[in-house]
Specification:
142 residues, mainly alpha, two-stranded parallel sheet, 6 helices, 2 strands
């Protein structure tokens, strides 16, 4: 019985030492439904928690370049369904080869809850929609 208590204690200590990170699925979901820049923020958080924040420069450069090519470039208009497909491809790139290269696919970690970021993202989108509607209402009087 004594040996079992020691093993339970070791398992508990090991679990306490695991980093708490956003999972690949969470990053993919936020990248797909919001943008690559949002997925990048989650991924950079993971790198920061692991002490690998310097590796994030490649993620930032890639996300900013992607954002410019698909959204920020006024000379290159991309239809919505193409943006959604490109976001899906970008989410796969972040969650599979980039994660495996920079974080490692065998890392044992606790999954951090996405509830607070999801709430903030929904508030932000609601604010954008409200402000766009308010702007349209104000401009329609002119």
């Amino acid at each position: 019985m004594q040996n079992r208590n020691i093993l339970d204690h070791l398992d508990w200590e090991e679990q306490q030492q695991r980093p708490e990170l956003y999972s690949k699925k969470i990053i993919m979901t936020f990248t797909l439904f919001f943008s690559v820049l949002v997925g990048m923020i989650f991924y950079l958080y993971n790198l920061w928690k692991l002490g690998k924040w310097q590796a994030g420069i490649w993620v930032v450069l890639g996300a900013v370049a992607y954002h410019y090519l698909t959204v920020g470039n006024p000379y290159f208009v991309v239809p919505f369904f193409v943006k959604a497909l490109l976001n899906f491809v970008a989410s796969l790139i972040i969650a599979l080869p980039v994660w495996n290269w920079q974080i490692g696919k065998d890392l044992n970690y606790k999954i951090k809850s996405p509830v607070v970021p999801l709430f903030l993202a929904i508030l932000f989108v609601a604010f954008l929609l409200y402000s766009k509607g308010l702007t349209n209402t104000l401009l329609s009087g002119f």
